Amino acid sequence: MAHLLSTPCLPRRRLLSAMLLAPLLARQALAAPLPAAPRIVAVEWLPAELLFALGITPIAVADIVSYRQWVQQPVLPPEVIDVGERVTPNLELMAALQPDMILYSAGYGPRAAQLKAVAPAMGFAYTDAAGKPLDMARVSIMALARRLDREAVGRAHLAWFDRQLAQAAPTLASYRRQPLLVFSVMDERHALVVGRNHLFQQVLDQLGIDNLWQGETNFWGTAVVGIEKLIALAPGRAILLEQDDGALRRRISKTPLWQAIPFVRQQSWRPAPAIWYYGATLAALRFCRLLEQLEGEWS
């Protein structure tokens, strides 16, 4: 499972360089105009989401099996082709697909030069220099919209997104009574927690909800911690995002370590389907929708 979340383990210098270069990459003017229905390959899941936000389905995506486990939505149609691992996609297969464009995440996976040897390529960053992934998502959506001559679609999407969050905020009053932890279980002894500088943290901030996790996080706004760290948390609520059918949860639920966690003892936690931790506006909105869905259970 480690390779699926290998993004947070990249060298910080490369990540910072990519973050600084991403706006320039996104603004690159590519000479050839794209067709009305462009054939686009997304070698990472963030740019795949950006495409869906603009109403475009990629012809190919990397690591579809893991996408359906960790991202789940937007659902990939069966005709979308798998071009291999996100870090080392199959360049020969991509060339055979004759794409009009390749989208990638800056600082992750193959070098831009490798992709540009196949087709024009455009890179996007997950976050910005201020550690605001949602702000970066807005920039990325409009940069891609301009490149695809879909600026009106991009503006409409962002306006719709803002309306959805604004409409949700008054319905989530019970979440403001207790802090909330968002996490996934990695194995019997480790959890991935969301904190400062994460996409979901920005959503929580906009909704006026406190995060139960106040500890350190990495560049991406997450931290892998021992489950014993959860025992020390103050009382609150928790949402467990699951990348499987609950088998791992059922295994660890019988352990003394798990049963000692305050939110477990108080039965103030809920399992939920996975949402991609390192996405953009669609992932953020799915998270907001999940909060709405669970509101009735906690009110």
TrEMBL record:
GO cellular component terms attached to this protein's record: outer membrane-bounded periplasmic space
**UniProt subcellular location:** Cell envelope
Q: Which domain of life is it from?
A: Bacteria
Coiled-coil intervals, chain numbering:
none
Q: Where is the signal peptide?
A: 1-31
Q: Where is the Fe/B12 periplasmic-binding domain?
A: 39-299
Where the protein is mainly located, per its record? Answer: other
Q: Which PANTHER family match?
A: IRON III DICITRATE-BINDING PERIPLASMIC PROTEIN, IRON(3+)-HYDROXAMATE-BINDING PROTEIN FHUD
Q: What is this protein called?
A: Ferrichrome-binding periplasmic protein
Native organism is: Sodalis praecaptivus
